[in-house]
Each structure stands twice: as C-alpha cells, then as structure tokens.
Design a protein that fits this description.
Blueprint lengths: L1 E4 L3 E5 L5 E5 L2 E7 L4 E6 L2 E6 L4 E11 L4 E6 L2 E12 L4 E5 L2 E11 L1 H11 L9 E10 L1
Antiparallel strand pairs: 1-6, 2-3, 4-5, 5-7, 6-7, 7-8, 8-9, 9-11, 10-11, 11-12
Length: 143
C-alpha cells in the first residue's frame, strides 16, 4: 500500500479508471528548456507498506534529472542511499512555458531495475519488474 509522506499529498482519480495520484512540492532545481536539461528537486515521498507483515520501504526527496531521464530518490531516509527509482520518457511530454512558470506534463514513468529489485526483496514478491509502467507524471516549476 503506497502512502504519501509529508509534505506530499495523495488522492484518487477516477477519470479513465481508478488511479492513485501523488503531489510533491518542488523545492528547487533549474531547467534549460532549449536543451531540455536540468534537475527539479521535490520534497516528501512515498511509504510502501504491507500492514499484514509490517514490512515497509520509504522513498523521498525526489530529483528529476531531465538529461538522464530519470527520477532518483533517497531510500529509508538515508541521504547516502540515493537510487534511480523511475525511468522517465519525454517522448510524449508537453512543455508549456509561461511568464514565471514552466510545466512539463505527459511524462511516462517506468520502474527501474534497482527499484523493482528493492520492492520485490522487501515484500517477498516477483510483482515488480524493470520497465513496469506506473503511469504519467507532470511537474511545474515557478521562477
């Protein structure tokens, strides 16, 4: 069961089926729109937990690296353990630049091998695989 950790928030969307949605505040970073490079830092995270067994793993302090096309996260609050959590595809992304803000939407997010292995090991399953599509993401940066 994935749960948002503060200051992140979670909710449910029912358009096109039921989906869990998370929102993570942007805390910094920089983006070069012409080269589509840079990083966007976020606070908050997700706690994956199995109430029946008490097993859990937490990921937080996400960083979107546009050039590497990945989202990295700190694992279980240990800043020395930052791992690639999601591979990001900008192939169908829409970039909207306005006065004082940039929004990138339609980012396809898939699980990395590192993240899939950690989730499988934590929860004693084979459910998670590298490349598993988790949905789409968007981010907004005000400047």
């Amino acid at each position: 069961m994935p749960l948002a950790t503060l200051p992140a928030t979670e909710g449910v969307s029912t358009s096109g089926g039921v989906a869990v949605k998370f929102a993570f505040p942007v805390t910094g970073g920089s983006v070069n729109l012409k080269k589509l490079t840079g990083a966007v830092d976020h606070s908050g995270g997700i706690l994956f937990t199995d109430p029946a067994t008490g097993k859990e793993i937490a990921v937080s302090d996400f960083v979107i690296d546009l050039k590497a096309a990945q989202l990295t996260a700190v694992v279980n609050g240990n800043p020395k353990e930052r791992v690639p959590l999601l591979s990001l595809s900008l192939a169908h992304a829409k970039i909207t630049a306005g006065k004082g803000a940039v929004r990138i939407s339609g980012i396809t997010a898939t699980l990395t091998k590192t993240a899939a292995s950690a989730l499988d090991a934590t929860f004693s399953t084979t459910l998670f695989t590298a490349g598993l599509e988790l949905g789409t993401a968007s981010t907004s940066v005000d400047f």
